[in-house]
Amino acid sequence: MAAVGVAGLLLFGVAMVMRRLLAPVSANPVRLTTYESGVDPVGSHWAQTQVRYLGFAFLYVIFAVDAVYLFPWATVLRDADLGAASLAEMGIFIAVLLVGLVHAARRGLLRWLP
Amino acid sequence: MSTLAALAATTDNPVADFGDTPWWLSLVKALLVFVFLLINTLLVIWFERRVIGRMQQRPGPNRAGPFGLLQTLADGVKLALKEDIVPKAADKIMFWAAPAIAGAMAFVSFAIIPMGGTVWMFGHKTPLQLTDTPIATLLVLAVAGVGVYGIVLAGWSSGSTYPLLGGLRSSAQVISYEIAMGLALVAVFLYAGSMSTSQIVFAQNDLWYIVPAFFSFVVYVITMVGETNRLPFDLAEGEGELTGGFHTEYSSLKFAMFFLGEYVNMFTVSALATTLFLGGPAAPPGIAAIGDGMLNGGWWGLLWFVVKLWLFMFFFVWLRGSLPRVRYDQFMRLGWKVLIPTTLVWVVMVAFIRAAELGFLGDSKVSLLGRDFPRATLFIIACIALAVLVAAWFYDNHQVKRRAELEEARAMDEEIDPFAGGHPVPPLPGQRLVEPPLALSAARPAPVTDSGSEENRG
């Protein structure tokens, strides 16, 4: 696993060295400006964006944690001691989450345009 | 079914035995996986361009080498010979790190994919799989999560508006679809009772999970297209909206790294789909029966694995050739309002079906068409059918009401002739177009009474 990762980084490194040896470098400073479809860039970089991404980020945390609980449960469901009880508990857990999602949707959090 | 349950109940540890695999053999296998992915990437880019060419009735690249096979190689060399530009406004370190992360992370997941049966390699008996752990499938999700950093950081560090928007879009897109993807996989874990890839493949001996977990398969296929930023979900680099999206400021080999990462990611998600739903390296049902399974396992597994992998590749290309890009709000709505709730319900459903199979819900059986079904399973399926019917009924009512409202709103609109001013104009809010007559009926000699409107049109 680690070997494949290291191999990937190695590939990147070798490619970068090769590129440095082969590729041309132009001295013109204009090429270093930000690309805005051919016109001079307006304003500074890193513009502000809408906060609407934030709602999805919060929901993601909730459902990611939900998935984290589901994964180990999926492998112990077959256990006769845990199975039936965990089944009911998971049903309630997921039902609560679904109610939460429906609430978020009704409050308009999932609507992209306000 | 009881044998299947017993199989799954044995252990959640990997079936693959790495006892006879020395460390140097692991390195050799890592190198082979790496080369396999690189060659496949070179081939799939050529394949994509040729197939899309056929779909659009043009030849596609056919000059470099036989059938244009070397075109990708030529393009790669060309990219290496291009000047590498780091914009003045960019955050230098992250600008370098992003393509490295995107490129390197794409390869890691392939380590846990079983690509064939157990084979003899340099005098050792070893499975055609680099490694496996009891939580191997989680590793793929984790690595996919790290891989997103490549795109997000590329967008942020470029110091430019288009890449920033592309990176933001991509992060929202990937986290939204990762949830649906993870939930779709839970159903597979429930059936297999394990997260180890070799164990999951082993548990599919009787029946590939595409049958019992069909809904998971559909959701997974949708989310894997969303995760890899491919059309129709390639909003992170939508050319019409964001010029190049997150890689607008990248050039030369750094740009090539993003492309390499994208294509290797396609192979990774396809390989995971093959492993979890299509029996991995197992031979297709008809062929597996030939000669007591002589075409199943060993090196033959690699053939079946590659065939299944490339079927997914063709599917990706086919999608790109036939579907336009979706709008961003529609894309998010599909993820959050359709995929996630339905997949949650599906997981609960599968859990109850599994519990019925394992006998938690009573042991009584019903004989139907000569096969025994547990009563609990039938009861649950009946409940689900009822729920689906009720939902469909509500949805239908809702649609009828909405259509009626729309009709009403249309009826109140003022009719305008789009050609009244001499050239066609679109309707304003509250206005409705009068459809111009079809060319055929317009060409007919008009009755005398109709000449007024003809004059109007100029």
Automatic annotation (TrEMBL), chain B:
EC number: 7.1.1.-
Top-level taxon: Bacteria
Membrane topology value: Multi-pass membrane protein
Entry's Gene Ontology molecular function annotations: NADH dehydrogenase (quinone) (non-electrogenic) activity
Reactions that this protein is recorded to catalyse: a quinone + NADH + 5 H(+)(in) = a quinol + NAD(+) + 4 H(+)(out)
Keyword Translocase appears in the UniProt entry: yes
Transmembrane segments: 23-47, 93-115, 135-156, 177-195, 207-225, 255-278, 298-318, 338-356, 376-395
Localization (cell): Cell membrane; Membrane
Functional description taken from the UniProt entry: NDH-1 shuttles electrons from NADH, via FMN and iron-sulfur (Fe-S) centers, to quinones in the respiratory chain. The immediate electron acceptor for the enzyme in this species is believed to be ubiquinone. Couples the redox reaction to proton translocation (for every two electrons transferred, four hydrogen ions are translocated across the cytoplasmic membrane), and thus conserves the redox energy in a proton gradient. This subunit may bind ubiquinone.
Subunit structure: NDH-1 is composed of 14 different subunits. Subunits NuoA, H, J, K, L, M, N constitute the membrane sector of the complex.
Protein name, entry field: NADH-quinone oxidoreductase subunit H
